[in-house]
Amino acid sequence: MRYISTRGKAPVLTFSDVLLTGLAVDGGLYLPETWPEFSPSEWKSLRGLPYPELAARIMTPFTEPDIHFETLHTLCKKAYSFFDHPAIVPLTQIDHALFVQELFHGPTLAFKDIALQLLALLFDDILTQRDEYATIIGATSGDTGSAAIEACRSSERLSVVILHPKGRTSEVQRRQMTTVIAPHITNLAVEGTFDDCQDLVKALFADLPFRQELHLSAVNSINWTRIAAQIPYYVQAALTFGAPDREVSFSVPTGNFGNILAAWAARRMGLPIQHLCIGSNRNDILSRFINANDMTIQEVVPSLSPSMDIQISSNFERLLFELLHRDVTACTEIMTHFRASGHMNVPQAVWQEATALFSALSLDDAQTEAEIRHLYQKTGYLADPHSIIGIVAGRRFQQQSIPMIAEATAHPAKFPDAIRAATGVHPSLPHHLADLFHRQERYHTVPVCQESIKSVIRTGVQHKNKTIK
Fold it and tell me: What domains does the chain contain, in order, with CATH numbers?
């Protein structure tokens, strides 16, 4: 498999180089040069497999010839051995034809663990083969940072730098990042929004001398491997409900568009997905696009679901590229204008094609709290402020003859204040995080300034790399 950039001016790369590169040097995002497609008989052959084997078989077409099935299967078994549910991504029925797929049974209680536990092992495997080191840099709205730090905390080949928006994550999310005291981990609390953090990361990648000096790579979903590692759980759910002989639909709470893009990718590979539903919070740029072709950047407003407090959804560029039939000139022009003006001019025909597959809704904080309470009173199920938005979207758009699967992206204990306010219940952290609020924190507070952040990163990472080597 080879990979191309959505902007068309970056080198064509193999899987290993895409993993280590992250963001393309032309500012675009990498996608497979051709999409692998599974036949009905191939889908059926995957039924009943343990999740690690299923994941390896789904991902192998993306990783070969760099990483073959046997190696990938071994890494998947190791990655998912840290999950606290034997099914890894279990399904729960909450209403007629409405189901929840729980993606939060990993070590940091969020769906990001599913990709990042594997991603860290892939990094170590490739870097060890090459006898190289890398610096992982990522922006987080709450969950990616803790999942990346946890996955990489024992790595001898990686330094990790995570930018989070100061005061805009839950306390559990922040402490999961800042209480990992290790010489190769750097946490930066940025005095801005997640979009500011994301823009800073992209600017650091665009600074080629700095990028080469520190061997930068990415763990955000700008890294294609993140998307590839999320495709298998959509496959697992669909197979459970009878695919390929039966269609299913999915509903996904999303801010950066990576999780639902993985569902779209599964559909592109031949999985019979009938419909995809987007759930947004009050930062509703994706819902405004689907419902009115309005992709206009507005102020990011803090909400009960901070991981979705985003106005620039990076992974939308990948979908746009595909909807434009891979026209790199048109994609580049639209994205360049979007960043310059704050408004994306999506052609009407492209928007109509998107609305044929996607539906969307948004909930404000009052609606989110009310829906958490309503679901708990009706079913006894506790959904965190992100998952509930996906559940409500699934309920709104479900068709009775087609199973609707809503993705539960975080454990309710990550947002105890919101859950307690809605239900009166205080969700407990699992045993391995029981002392989280008593652990020492360490992080640097930094302004939204590329040069200031470069200075902090260079000082810390250079020292750490000398220690590692």
Answer: 86-109+224-423 (3.40.50.1100)
Name 273's Cβ contacts closer than 8 Å, sequence gap at least 6: 234, 238, 247, 248, 249, 250, 263, 266, 267
State the pTM of this model.
0.95
Judge whether 103 and 146 are in contact, CB under 8 Å. no
3-class secondary structure, 134: strand
Annotated active-site positions, please? 112
Q: How far apart are CA 316 and CA 331, in angstroms?
A: 11
Q: In what order do the strands lie in the sheet with 158-165?
A: 216-218, 134-139, 158-165, 185-190, 444-446
Token duo for residue 24:
């393309």
Q: How far apart are CA 80 and CA 89, in angstroms?
A: 10
CA dihedral 340, 216, 3, 74 (to 10 degrees): -140
Cα–Cα distance, 114 to 112 (Å, whole number): 5
Q: How far is CA 218 from the centre of its chain?
A: 12
| CA pair distance 389, 368, nearest whole angstrom | 7
List, in sequence order, the alpha helices (H) in 80-111: none
Token pair recorded at residue 209:
């001398």
Summarised one tens digit per residue, pLDDT across range 338-355 is: 999 999 999 999 999 999
Write out pLDDT tens, residues 251-308: 999 999 999 999 999 999 999 999 999 999 999 999 999 999 999 999 999 999 999 9
Per the CB < 8 A criterion, the answer to whether 135 and 169 are in contact is no
Compute the chain's Rg from CA coordinates. Answer: 21
Phi, psi of 192 (to 5 degrees): -170, -160
Place of tokens 């992974």: 315
Contact partners, residue 155, CB within 8 Å, separation at least 6: 120, 123, 124, 184
Least Cα distance to 64 among 34, 29, 21, 43 occurs for: 34
CA distance to 62, 196, 220, 286, per residue, from 29 (Å) = 15, 19, 11, 19
Q: 251 with 389: CB under 8 angstroms?
A: no
